[in-house]
Structure formats: C-alpha cells, structure tokens
Amino acid sequence: MAGEPAIDGVHARLIRTLGRPWRWLEPLAHRYADAFSGHTRPRHRDVIRFLIDDAGFQRARRAHRDKLSIAEWIPEPQRMHPVAAALQWDLPTIETAGDLAAWLSLYPTELEWFADLKGLGYKVNNPKLQHYHYSVRTKRSGGVRLIESPKPDMKELQRRILAAILDRIPAHPAVHGFVKGRSVVTYASPHVGQEVLLRLDLQDFFPSFPGARAQAMFRTLGYPEQVADRLGGICTNAVPGHVWKNRSLEISAEQWRQARVLYARPHLPQGAPTSPALANIMAFRLDCRLTGLARTAGAVYTRYADDLAFSGGEEFSRVADRFSIHAAAIALEEGFSVNHHKTRIMRQGVRQNLAGIVVNRKINLRRADLELLEATLINCVRRGPGSQNRAGVPDFRAHLAGRIGFVEMIDSAKAERLRAIFEMIEWER
C-alpha cells in the first residue's frame, strides 16, 4: 500500500493480502487514496498510522478478529514514483540504498556514515569523526550565524547531488538568489521606479528547513524512502555540542542558548553547496503564495535567499502596512519567521534600497558604498592590503575582487576605475 494511491490497485492488493474480498476493503481503499493522493509519497510509518487511526478498519478488525489474517505477503519492489512535474526533469533513477551507494561511488557502510541517519555525528564529541568545520559569527543585527563548511569528501558528494539532481529542478520565477542567469540585479530590477517598496527578511533562513522536510522533498521527486532518507541525510546536518563551548561576549547567553537549540536538529547547513538549491525548491510553495498575494494587491514580488521584496503603485501604497502583516502570516504558515526589526516600507521620498542597490529611478549603487570601496582600495595601494583587512577575511584579495565584480554588474565605468586601482595593489607572496 505504500506506492501510488490508485484505488483499484490498492483494493486488489488488499484482497490478495487478506485472502478474501471483504466488503469493507473497497471503502478502505478509497479512504487511503483520499488521504495520500496529491501528497508526497507516504512513508511506511505513515501507512501504519493511517490504519491505526482509521475507524472503519478498526471496526472491521474487531468484528472479524478470528477470521482476519495475512493470506499472502506481497513484497513491493522499490520503484521511482515521481510527482507529475518531476517526470520531465530527467532525474537519475536510484531505487535502493545499494544503488545510491554505487551512484556515489561509496561502499554501503560509507553511505551510512555520510548520511548519518542515527545522528552519531551529533553525539560523538570528536571533530575528526564529523563531516563539517564550524565557524560561529556575530550578525550585524545581533544574534548568531553559524557557518557549516563540509569537509572535502562530504562536499564532493553534495556537489554530485547538486549537479545531477537539484540543478535539474527549475526555480520559481520570483526567485533570483543562487539561480543560474539571475542575480541581485534581476532581483532588484522589477522594483525600479515604483511608488512604494516593501522589504521583509526571513529569520534563520537555512536552519528553518528541517531534515525531515528535505527527505520529503526527495520522496516527492520519486525516490523510495530508503534512498530519499539518505539523500536528505547527506544534505543536512545537526551541530554537535562542542561547537558551543566558548561563547563570544558579544552574544548574550539567551541568544547563545537559542542558537544551540536551533542548530541541534537536522537542518540545511549554511556552507553546503546543496543548501541554496534545496532551500529554493522547498520554498516553492512560499513563493507561489506570496506571488499570488502580491498580485491581488497590485504588486510584484521577488526573493533573493532570505530577502523578500514587494513593490507597486498607488493601489499597493494604500495597503502596504496591512499587506506586510499578511505576508508575514503566510511565511509563518510555511515554517518561516519574519525578522520584524528589518521590515522596511520605503516610499519614493526616501532611498529605496534592495541588497545594496538603489531602485528609486534606475538601478544604481549607494554613493557611500562606492566611496568606501574606493577609499579601501587606495589605502591598500598606499599602506598595503593588511592594513585594510580589519575583519580578518581569509582571502582578502578575492573579497575585494568580488566587491568590484558586484559594481561591474551595475556600472561598468565605475568598476573599470576601481579595477585599475585594484591592479596597483602589491600583494604579499
């Protein structure tokens, strides 16, 4: 019964299993189909729970206690059962845990270690036996951000899953972060010249996606439970306790405790190559609902990772305050929390800013940001790059090059001037 809930097929399997065409079997098949059709492929435990909770089945079980028995166990082969949309995505067929191990070029025991479905990595207090390096950072707005960088072997497995599975799933049209051919420029462009701009921020974006949700997503793609669970296990992580031993004085004890609880459950790790694509796929329903909400208010919606943007003309301007409450409620229903301290309603009389881009009349950069970057580059030339790397960025050269590249997406002339200064910097060898 754990396959596709086609009524005739379920009814026939029930008759074969119990050995008699009981009259109550057909209604049971209908109720099973109603419970699971249109949803993610059910787990084995979901089917058991359905039978335990089904009043009709329990009445029949009590009425026929002496006659009810298993006549024939029908083993169900592990097969792909993708949802209709996934049929056109050309996903690799992987139907058993052994197939998955072979596809990832692993021994079965190695697959179990990387997937870590029993959470041993969380329980073992030995960093050498764990799959991630950790870096605890303080958010500019307060609170904790944890960077979870997968070690080389884990990263290679995640890259394989990303390239062969996740990259083949199209992103929602409103999503512009971590999508090929889209950028912060395409994220901001639809909001140029609008009467009012509303910006919302989702709190703790990546850890908001629990491991069970990732496993359910892989089942939606058609992978049997054993395969989906292990794919989800490789793409998620639970942070062990030793990471939280030394609290920075910049972070309050309560914020530290909340972060420890949040990251203790399996979640998408910020730093894994699979996390951005998985987050976009699993937020698809959120994006659909917010797109529809924006359309009803005469607005346009775009998202870049955890940054949500809505904009519109006079009609939207009149309802922007109430609209932000409705949008936050939808986010909450979909498993996200809005950081209300970062909510901004920006009208044409003020600078309308999205991800460092000004959109009042045209795509532009903030003058202060350009001046600061130019001053940093000039001081690198005069005093050496070490004097400007006050935050201790590991690859400061790549960091500056990336900031110039950001400018280049918006204003090539200004970027050319900045790059000329960059080329004059003497880097230590």
Characterize the largest beta sheet: strand count, sense, and whether it forms a barrel.
5 strands, antiparallel
Beta percentage is 5-15%
Which structural class best describes the helix and strand composition? alpha+beta
Determine the fraction of residues in helical runs and give it as a percent range: 40-55%
Shape: globular
End-to-end distance: 65 Å
Structure explained in plain terms:
This protein is of the alpha+beta class. Helix content is 46%, strand content 11%. The protein has helices at residues 7-18, 25-36, 44-53, 55-63, 97-103, 108-115, 120-123, 152-164, 184-188, 211-220, 225-235, 253-264, 275-282, 284-296, 314-333, 367-383, 396-410, 412-422; strands at 132-138, 144-150, 196-203, 299-304, 307-312, 337-338, 344-347, 353-354, 357-358, 364-365. The strands form three sheets. Strands 3, 4, 5, 6 and 7 form a five-stranded antiparallel beta sheet that branches. A three-stranded antiparallel beta sheet has the order 8-9-10. Strands 1-2 form a two-stranded antiparallel ribbon. It is globular and about 90 Å long. It starts with 6 loop residues before the first helix and ends in a 7-residue tail after the last helix.
Quick recap of the structure?
The chain has 18 helices and ten strands. By secondary structure, it is an alpha+beta fold.
Summarize the helices and strands and which ones pair or pack.
Layout: H1 7-18, H2 25-36, H3 44-53, H4 55-63, H5 97-103, H6 108-115, H7 120-123, E1 132-138, E2 144-150, H8 152-164, H9 184-188, E3 196-203, H10 211-220, H11 225-235, H12 253-264, H13 275-282, H14 284-296, E4 299-304, E5 307-312, H15 314-333, E6 337-338, E7 344-347, E8 353-354, E9 357-358, E10 364-365, H16 367-383, H17 396-410, H18 412-422
Antiparallel strand pairs: 1-2, 3-5, 3-6, 3-7, 4-5, 8-9, 9-10
Helix pairs in contact: 1-2, 6-11, 10-11, 14-15, 17-18
